[in-house]
């Protein structure tokens, strides 16, 4: 299973420069890829370019970017521009985002989101493989002057229509904040959709909140992120089934973030995250792999752990390799009783 790092995820009150610090830590520790999500603060392609210029060789994926606010050509142009400036491949991730972001921030209507995702993914897949000298878009008198960005096309999915779009067009399908049990169910849906589309199933990745040996600030940051999913269909049922029904009911009644935070016990973070001591976190990662996940994208808590240094160091590729190669030595005193 591959391990990547999410340097910019959902919007919170972290320092504005935190994604740059997270990306630098990930690059230094040998992670292979960094995700640069887009929100009200950062433009994903500008952030990808900044990270690419400041790091040694980590691969870059911009997004998910909301398909209701950018057309397919502007997406491929942004990725190709970032690739040209950084000298490395840049991938593009698509998502439908939320009404709060699309309409509340961008002032654009969020209508037919599943259909727009399908249309954008289909168009973008074709544009990502165009070559210099070809029209920038079919029928245009303008010609391409840059090579394609070279990175993968990722589609964020959870519902059936989005999964079908990922199966038909993507190199990778992205999930967000899911349990191993949900991975198993969604992977089966992806394989069925890919069979109907006549394609090999794309790889499956998920963004997973991570905090190794978390202090209270880190745990609070993770729980605030979890609270945002308590009213989302599919997630609310999972949280209710795992014993957090009170928090789900409060969220559906319109309770504020602080009230939800008080209602969520620490255990809620571990339901959809990698939280705890290193051995517990590695065991949880193995559960995701056993469920069929191809890639975990770590979303490190940075509150109380600037740059996610503690978490990313504990889960760095070199340390994972060593833990697989070197079994623990038996104690000379024999087993503990």
What's the alpha carbon Rg, rounded to whole Å? Answer: 20 Å
Tally of individual domains: 1
The helicity comes to: 40-55%
Q: Would you tell me which CATH topology applies?
A: TIM Barrel
Shape: globular
Class from secondary-structure proportions: alpha/beta
Count the strands? 9
Amino-to-carboxy terminus distance: 35 Å
The H/E string reads EHEHEHEHHEHEHEHHHHHEHEHH
How many helical stretches? 15
Strand order in space, largest sheet: 1-2-3-4-5-6-7-9
InterPro entries: F420-G6PD/mer (IPR050564), F420_Rv3093c (IPR022526), Luciferase-like_dom (IPR011251), Luciferase-like_sf (IPR036661)
EC number: 1.-.-.-
Organism: Streptomyces heliomycini
Pfam family, one: Bac_luciferase
Describe this structure in words.
This is LLM class F420-dependent oxidoreductase. It is an enzyme of class 1 (oxidoreductase). The protein has 337 residues and is an alpha/beta fold. It has a single domain, classed as Alpha-Beta Barrel (TIM Barrel), CATH 3.20.20. Helix content is 45%, strand content 17%. Strand 2, helix 2 and strand 3 form a beta-alpha-beta unit. It is globular, with a radius of gyration of 20 Å.
Outline of the structure:
This is LLM class F420-dependent oxidoreductase. The protein is an alpha/beta fold and 337 residues long.
